[in-house]
């Protein structure tokens, strides 16, 4: 896939952005639409395996065709009945989760070494950005100390899993927007039995069919991430 064939925008760092080097960097935010899982995974892993000085940080906004992804420490018993949905063993942290149309995925490709960001700090930053983005839709999201992600009244609305390689992060977050959530019943989401899931469309009431809710949510998440990562709005 050619990333530049898709819509993207450029952000620039704030003057006080802490850097471990003098590299001039920016941030590309790409909207990639609906994608098969594996080509996207291989593309972001390739970037991490082939670091290049001066390369911009990136955020990829997209949705995936139906797929279960199983993290490095994933246990087979958490996949209850995959049925016809493919299961892909991948290299992020965490257990099994589901991706499908109507779910916003944001992959966060950051040079954490250059940016002097620790893994825990990056996880906190992403979760805080999600809580902030949800607030723009009058949804009160909460973080949990014992489980990454964001929750609303105990139900999981966003999952999070990262990998760091050569000082570069990849993978990221998935946020349930307006999707068929039934496949979550075929797994123990993120390794938790009987974990309820929810989504934005069910929390904000009837959505005008002319409204592009996915685009709105993507813009809100991208805006929160870019500011918290130290880029100009």
Task: Please explain how this structure is put together.
With 233 residues, this protein is α+β, with helices and mostly antiparallel strands. Helix content is 23%, strand content 30%. It has helices at 37-49, 112-115, 119-135, 200-203, 213-228, and strands at residues 7-11, 27-35, 57-64, 67-70, 87-89, 96-99, 103-109, 142-144, 147-152, 155-165, 168-176. The strands form 2 sheets. Strands 1-2-3-7-11-10-9-8 form an 8-stranded mixed β-sheet, with helices on both faces. Strand 10 and strand 11 (168-176) form a beta hairpin. Helix 3 packs across helix 5 (213-228).
Give a quick set of tags describing it.
233 residues, 3-stranded mixed beta sheet, globular
- Number of helical regions: 5
By oligomeric state, this entry counts as: single chain
Any idea what the shape is? globular
Order of helices and strands: EEHEEEEEHHEEEEHH
Helical percentage: 10-25%
Q: Which strand order does the major sheet show?
A: 1-2-3-7-11-10-9-8
Number of strands: 11
Rg, rounded, reads 17 Å
N- to C-terminal distance: 28 Å
What characterizes the major β-sheet?
Answer: 8 strands, mixed
Kindly estimate the percentage of residues that lie in beta strands according to DSSP: 25-35%
Please, what is the average pLDDT? 91
SS class: alpha+beta
Contiguous uncertain segments of 5+ residues? none
Topology:
Elements: E1 7-11, E2 27-35, H1 37-49, E3 57-64, E4 67-70, E5 87-89, E6 96-99, E7 103-109, H2 112-115, H3 119-135, E8 142-144, E9 147-152, E10 155-165, E11 168-176, H4 200-203, H5 213-228
Parallel strand pairs: 2-3, 4-5
Antiparallel strand pairs: 1-2, 3-7, 4-6, 7-11, 8-9, 9-10, 10-11
């Amino acid at each position: 896939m050619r990333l530049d064939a898709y819509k993207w925008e450029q952000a620039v760092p704030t003057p006080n952005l802490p850097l471990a080097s003098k590299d001039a960097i920016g941030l590309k935010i790409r909207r990639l639409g609906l994608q098969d899982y594996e080509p996207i995974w291989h593309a972001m892993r390739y970037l991490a395996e082939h670091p290049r000085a001066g390369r911009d940080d990136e955020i990829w906004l997209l949705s995936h065709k139906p797929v279960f992804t199983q993290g490095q420490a994933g246990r087979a018993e958490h996949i209850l009945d995959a049925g016809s949905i493919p299961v892909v063993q991948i290299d992020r942290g965490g257990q099994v989760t589901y991706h499908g149309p109507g779910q916003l995925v944001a992959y966060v490709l950051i040079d954490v070494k250059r940016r002097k960001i620790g893994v825990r700090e990056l996880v906190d930053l992403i979760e805080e950005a999600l809580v902030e983005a949800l607030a723009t839709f009058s949804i009160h999201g909460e973080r949990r100390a014992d489980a990454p992600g964001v929750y609303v009244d105990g139900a999981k609305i966003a999952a999070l899993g990262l990998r760091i390689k050569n000082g570069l992060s990849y993978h990221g977050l998935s946020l349930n927007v307006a999707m068929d959530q039934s496949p979550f019943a075929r797994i123990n989401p993120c390794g938790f039995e009987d974990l309820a899931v929810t989504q934005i469309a069910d929390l904000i009431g009837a959505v005008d069919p002319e409204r592009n809710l996915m685009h709105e949510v993507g813009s809100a998440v991208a805006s929160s991430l870019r500011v918290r990562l130290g880029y100009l709005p």
